[in-house]
Structure formats: structure tokens, C-alpha cells
Amino acid sequence: MRMIALIEIELRRRAVPKAIRLLLVSGSASLLIGAAEPEARFAVTLPSDLVEDASGRLLLFATPTTSETMTSDAVDLERDRSVSVAARDVSGFRASRSIAIDTRAMAFPASFATLPQDSYHVQAVLDRNGDYNFAGRGPGDLVSKVVTLHFPLSSMPVIPLDHALPPEKDQFDTTGLPPAAAEQIAASRPHLHDERIASAVLTRFHGANQAVAAWVLTPPGYDPTSRTTYPTVYTAGAFGADHKLAGQQLSRMWHLMETGAMPPMIWVALDHSSPTGTTEFADSANNGPWGKALVDEIIPALEAKYRMDAKPSGRFLTGHSSGGWFALWAIVRYPQRFGGSWATAPDPVDFHDFLGVDLYAPKANIYHDGSGRPRPLERDHGRVLGTIEDAALLEGVLGNKGGQLRSLEWVFSPRRRDGTPAFLFDRGTGAVDPAVAAYWRAHYDIGHRIEADWPRLGKYLNGKIHVVVGTADSYYLDGPVRRLDAAFRKVGGRADFRYVPGATHSMAMLYAQDADRNALWKEMSRAMYAVARPGQIWGVASVTALTPRPSAGARQHS
Predict the structure, then answer these.
(1) Reduced to 3 states, what is the DSSP secondary structure of residue 300?
(2) Euclidean distance between CA atoms 409 and 416, whole angstroms
């Protein structure tokens, strides 16, 4: 056993990636001990009375019976690192109605044959539309019952798929919600309008009919026959949000307007989810011209249908996380189309600090720093919750697309001959491809764009950008925001950057002030209204009071 330990130490010294290290060590152990490797294969069957046939990504989950990551009927990924998952693609079960999955071929963190001796809960899932990375299990996915197996295995277990997951409830179903929340959702429903806007430019790109989904929330007193128009706020959700969630979130805006806490405006929740992740409404070599679709098709179509101001001073942008990046990118890319942008905890806005990595540094590595230490991906204040390497490896097992890291490549990377985006970094070693990083810089690095193009952008962007981020952001996004802040200071631009002490990536922490969990929503909307209606007084607040007030750690450039 000492020899195995020495092998492990040497592999770590040479910075061999974790997944390869585990395979080499387990193989060495088998040779040194002289024992046959434990069984690593499973047979998953499809009963004839379930469906005729099925295809998709077959996933196998295992967790010790002592783990807290299992509910009574599911084994799924949780923060607890004790969940293992294996995968393979399935084109169909055919006549045998059985598929073998070899966990030595594709598994995280390693083959199930390496699992410590113990009893495990195991469950099979057939992800039929390949969106597990983005949305997890969903309607129509086929799942087995949870079975208990003792590892190491002496023979190949057989696990039958048992049932299909049911359709989702209606998104406005209030069953089980607190009465106040149910009333709020019910009150907003008549004022929420479900739109699908056809896009000619996306249709040409994809060669099939394309439409963009959006919810439009009209304010109290809205009359489609009147001459009154309203400022309009365009928002997009964080990674993992979809059209259903967007409609639910607008119920809050209705409540705040109805109670007089926010000025009357039209809110548009745009859906930028896709099979590849989030498009962030950026024109992309891989996803297509989503930015052009937004400004040339979606906005004009909505302004023709609803009583919107339909001018730059009446159009605003906001969003959180991936939606925050959208809110910044759209105004930097189309500065003459919008009156202001309010972003919270945006995805990396300067690639000198991409998840803590300077993508432009010589021999940049996304997995390890210069000393060989693993780079963290997520934190809870001082505690590291996961590394970039583990996240990338797990993402590769769960599916070919839709994960957060791959999603950014679908947006930012050049297109390869096979129609898929170039990888920013080698999934085995973590080495950054400098050519791909240079492409990202030239096309999507917001900080670089501010510095390089300020003579043109300045007169349209000055005073329009507002960014809020926590100093303990869970994904270290305060770092790139500080770089963007520095870029504005370097060119002498006016912008509002504020850093909320101790706040993580949580919207609850960023949007709350004192006992008011909607404080930032109110502040942003009032500031927008002041731009759209200069000189007017809304509610009891004066125009002066409507400008963003600095909070602790704020920096306002003048």
C-alpha cells in the first residue's frame, strides 16, 4: 500500500489531472495487489410497458446509504461531494431493451469500481432531451427506483427504469404557497402577457423557425386604447432560469407597483435559455445573432403592440448573474438604444479575471494556479465549496452541452468546422487556448471594450451603467467587476459601482436593505423613472431622491 501512496504523491507533484490520477492509481493498485478489478458495469433495462423505445443521456447516480443527499425517491447531485455519477449516450434500447453502462468509460469523480467498500443507494435516469446540465431532471425523463447495492460489486447489477417524470404544474399554480404569495401571483396574472416573437435572423441562422419567448407585465391603470405610454424595463434571468420562472418573478413587480412602492412601468422578462445554456442576447458564431434579434425584431415588435415609450430614454436593462452580463453587454453593444443598465453580480465582465484566472497570461491554466494549487469555483465566504476542475469534469459527464462553462463557450468562442464552439481550455489539463482567449477578448471582453472604444462609446454610456456586487460573491465575480470599475476610472467615464460588504451571489442579500427585501428593486425602478420622466415627481420622492444612493463600498465616478 505504501507503493500506491508513493504513486499518488508523484502524480500530484507532476500536476496530473484528478480524473486521470484516480484511474492510474486504481489501475496500479490492481496490478500491485494482484486482485481483479471490481465490477464497474451496470445493465439498465427499459420495461416494455413503460415506452416503446427511448434515447438520450443515460445517467447513473450513487451515494453512500449514510449520505444526506438522497430524498426518499431520488439520488441526485447536491453540495455534498459524496454523490458519484456515470454516463453514456443511448440512441435506443432496441429489441434487447437493455443497455450496459460501463462506469470506467465516463464517470465523476471516477469509476464506480474505485468507490470505498460500503452500501450505496443507486438510481438510473434517462435524460431524454439532454438538458440535465441546465435544468436537471424534467418531465418525460425516465427514472428507476432507488436500489441499494454493496460495493465493491462482484457481478453486474440490473436496474430497470421504472417510470416517467410527470408534466410540470402550471407555472401559476399556487398550491402549497403561503396565502400572501398566492394572492400576489393571482393578482398579477391578468396583467402578464405571454409572447412569442418570431425572429427572421435566428431562423436564417438555424435553418428552422425560431421565436423568442417573453413575458410582458403591464402596470396598474394600463389601457391599451389610451395615449399614455410607459417606460419599459427589459430583464433576463440567471443561468438555469427559463420562461416559466421569468413569469413567476414578474409577479413581484406587479405587487410593488400595485402597492405604490414602485413607479408604473412595463416589464419585459426575456427568455434567453436554450439547449446550449444561456445565450445572453449576444451575437454569437455558435448560437446565432441574438443581439440583433433583440434590438431589430423583439423590441420593435413589442413596442408596436404595447403602450411603451419606444425611445432610448424610456428603455432600461436589468438582470442578475448571466442576466446581469446581458444587461451590461446590451447597453455597451447598443449604447444609443437604451437609457440605462442596472446589473447585479454579472458573469465575468473582464477576462483578466475569469473565475480568478487571467485568460491572457502566458501558459494560463484554469484548473491550477502558478503554484499548482486547485483553483476554486465557488465559495461560502472563507470556505471553498468546489473547484473549477471538478465542475468541468462533472459537466462533461452530465451532458455534451448546457453546462455553465460550456454555455459560455457557446456564446464567446469561435465556431469549429463541426459546428460546435472551440474549447477555451483543455478539459484534461486545464490549459487555456491563447487563440480562443484572444477571440474572447476581441469580441466579448466588456472591460477591454470600454478601454479600447471609449472615444466612441463615452458620449452614449456616461452615467448609464450601474453595477452592484457582493464582496464575498460566491463565484468570485466581485473581481472582474472591480476591473471594469478600474476601466471606467482609467478612461474618465461616469458609472456607479457598489460593493455590498459580506454579500454572496444571493439576490436576497444584494437586493435587501435593513428589513426591506425589495429595497434595490425600488431604488432601481425609481432611478429609471427619473431618467424617463425628468423633472416629474413620482409618489412622495423628489427627483433628487430618485438618483442611486451610494451604499457601503460604493464608488461613483464623476
Answers:
(1) helix
(2) 11
